[in-house]
Amino acid sequence: MDAESLLVSASINIGLALLILTLFSILRKQSSYAPIYYARRLSQHHPVPFDRRFTLRRLLPSLEWISRAARVNEEEILDTCGLDVLILIRLFKFG
């Protein structure tokens, strides 16, 4: 594989990853998508705080969820999501 093909492939993959992260970050702030992103919390009748007004903050991507997701340990994943999710995450880590 030549260097130009590698550079093109890397730039396409990085661009798509940034686009997907941005879309995820924006869509999870929209109250209409709460059943998708907060299904377990809503099924257990826990409140999900949303700003019902349309503000610019809802359209700006935020990445603070990445640091929170990195700090979650396996015990918390097992308690909140179950054994199947924990096994899937372990497969991704080792795999």
UniProtKB/TrEMBL annotation:
One Pfam entry name: RSN1_TM
Keywords per UniProt: Membrane, Transmembrane, Transmembrane helix
TM region(s), chain numbering: 6-27
InterPro entries associated with the record: Csc1-like, CSC1/OSCA1-like_N
Domain CSC1/OSCA1-like N-terminal transmembrane intervals: 6-94
Keyword Membrane carried by entry: yes
Record flagged with keyword Thylakoid: no
The name this protein goes by in its record: CSC1/OSCA1-like N-terminal transmembrane domain-containing protein
